[in-house]
């Protein structure tokens, strides 16, 4: 089952891909049945060092991942996602009272376009080797997306690698609410349910008292996912989920029923998520999604999913 394409019982294709950090992870994911990479966390190259990695060093790593996947599998590379809870010693950011609401993700890259340009040049070198996608994190406004895309377009023009898909992480409520406005300007969306949950619920997911309540199955979070899928669908764009919720096999039919067509999961979850999808038809997934959207609390959602488990 794990080596078969991900699909519902009636044959609707749902790509089950993996979240990875490096080429070794990519190799393990493919062996486990992953159909590609839905999230390459590029910050692994930037961590635990005194200086930023060079373009050549980055390119070697991205190309190594691409070679593990081959030309037929997708590779989604997230540009540098630091700030907030992920500081870098050589990239000093001002001390902030609310770092989760400060310089994070694409905001850091746009503040340091030299780092972004170097990274984009390195990522683009993997374009001939695989189905390359570039994804910008923590995008909250069209202005940020357009600024990042303008830099990417310049680097593509210089490199000659034009055939690259561009998307954004949906982690900020404004991106979900405005999905129909973003959709004409991107090729895809990938929902980061961990951050989206903490921003929708205004709960720090690392808070010792509140973390347990920061549940991605909260009806408010599910409504944001539905809104994203509706906005994307209106413009023929696809939506993936790469946050922790994608690896929860109980949530898989709900996400598919909301309109998600790609689940990027932890490698150990590939087989179980595929097996779960195979037990549900697309109509059943849609019915389940509408049922949970009508509920009012996390407890009600979880109880309903427990009743419907297969």
What features would you describe in this structure?
- Strand 7 (238-241), helix 10 (252-258) and strand 8 form a beta-alpha-beta unit.
- The chain has 310 residues and is α/β, with parallel strands linked by helices.
- An eight-stranded parallel β-barrel has the order 1-2-3-4-5-6-7-8, surrounded by six helices.
- The protein has helices at 23-31, 55-69, 106-111, 113-124, 142-159, 173-177, 179-182, 193-201, 219-233, 252-258, 270-277, 282-293, 298-308; strands at 15-20, 37-41, 74-78, 131-136, 165-170, 188-191, 238-241, 262-265.
- It contains 13 helices and eight strands.
Mean pLDDT, to the nearest integer, reads 95
> Radius of gyration, rounded?
19 Å
Helical percentage: 40-55%
What's the domain count? 2
Largest sheet: 8 strands, parallel, barrel
Annotation, overall tally of beta strands? 8
Strand content: 5-15%
Unreliable stretches (pLDDT < 50, length at least 5) are none
């Amino acid at each position: 089952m794990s080596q078969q394409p991900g699909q519902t019982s009636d044959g609707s294709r749902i790509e089950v891909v993996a979240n990875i950090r490096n080429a070794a992870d990519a190799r393990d994911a493919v062996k486990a049945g992953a159909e590609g990479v839905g999230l390459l966390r590029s910050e692994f190259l930037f961590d635990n060092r005194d200086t930023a990695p060079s373009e050549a060093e980055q390119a070697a790593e991205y190309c190594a991942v691409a070679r593990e996947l081959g030309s037929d599998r997708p590779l989604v590379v997230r540009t540098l996602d630091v700030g907030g809870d992920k500081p870098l010693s050589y990239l000093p950011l001002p001390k902030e009272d609310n770092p989760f609401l400060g310089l994070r993700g694409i905001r850091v890259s746009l503040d340091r376009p030299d780092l972004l340009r170097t990274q984009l040049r390195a990522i683009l070198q993997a374009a001939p080797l695989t189905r390359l996608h570039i994804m910008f994190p923590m995008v909250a406004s069209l202005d940020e997306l357009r600024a990042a895309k303008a830099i990417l377009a310049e680097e593509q023009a210089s490199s000659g690698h034009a055939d690259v898909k561009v998307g954004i992480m949906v982690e900020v409520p404004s991106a979900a609410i405005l999905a129909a406005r973003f959709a004409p300007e991107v090729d895809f969306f990938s929902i980061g349910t961990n951050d989206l949950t903490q921003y929708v619920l205004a709960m720090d997911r690392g808070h010792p008292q509140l973390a347990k309540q920061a549940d991605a199955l909260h009806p408010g979070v599910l409504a944001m996912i539905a809104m994203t899928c509706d906005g994307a669908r209106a413009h023929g764009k696809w939506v993936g989920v790469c946050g922790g919720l994608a690896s929860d096999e109980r949530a898989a039919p709900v996400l598919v029923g909301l309109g998600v067509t790609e689940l990027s999961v932890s490698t150990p979850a590939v087989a179980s998520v595929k097996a779960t999808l195979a037990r549900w038809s697309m109509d059943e997934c849609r019915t389940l999604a509408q049922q949970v959207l009508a509920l009012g609390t996390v407890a009600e959602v979880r109880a309903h999913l427990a009743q419907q488990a297969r």
